[in-house]
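# nightly structure sweep
# worker-07 picked up a monomer target from the shared queue
# config: single-sequence mode, recycle default, output format = structure tokens
# input follows
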Amino acid sequence: MRIGMTGAGSGPEAVVRQAQRAEADGFTSLWFASAILGDPLVGMALAGQSTERIELGTSVLVTYACHPVLQAKRVAAVAAAIGTPGRLTLGIGPSHDVVVEGALGLSYSTVGQHVEEYVEIVTTLLRGEPVAFSGKEFRANADPPSLVGDEPIPVLLGALAPRSLRVAGRHAAGTILWMGNAVAIRDHIAPRLTASASDAGRPAPRIVAGLPIAVHDDVAEARETAAKQFAIYDTLPNYQRLMARGGVSSAADVAVVGNEESVAEQIRVLFDAGMTDLWAAPFAVGEDATGSRARTRALLSELARS
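# output follows
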């Protein structure tokens, strides 16, 4: 099974140690939010130099915060620092109106158009092709950055809405999700994404699904903990719509919780639904936080090696 973990660390050295441990434990990938270290790319470059195989991806870098031409150059520079083709994946997404308008002071009113143009520009450049683009949101005329071994750098789009899924299928390597359960993946994500990729003559897309996970015998206690830790996602419209697609109304209902047998079965159901990669976000339940996370990690490591 392709199982990765949430990337984190209090500093670059901690990111490196985490990547080394994750690789040793058999995990296929680490996924770094844009807030890690203020910008995760430097830490990821160092982690890539200190490991041999593990995929390092962003989940996700906010499109509004960086022009697509500059984004492509930044990511190509990190790939060059890592030195091995195929180990870096760019996950991007438009974030939420509360971030874009509230924190960045930009308009979120044309987010669909913004995403479509952004993805077309950045994927063109990261395929090693020049771009000459004039749209409603962006104008760009640029040569591609140098790519390690002339290998394209894959791009995943945080695509939750139908339009974004069509864009991801047409231009990107797939989608990276957060808070999408098996029903949402099976009935909403996979059909739209796969159809768009097929129509464009592209390979089968990846579906990287990020989910909170806790191995814990008391399911009610685990869901109560998830409700508190992940409450913010219940308030964001993008996630509310995705959870509704999955027939649930809260992050607590999306969380993968239970004993080892139950969690393993829930993960198998996710793969059967169309998920290609699990991005696991373990969370602690109960008074023994260290022991709780260790129990979850042990199961995930076992599954990753299977």
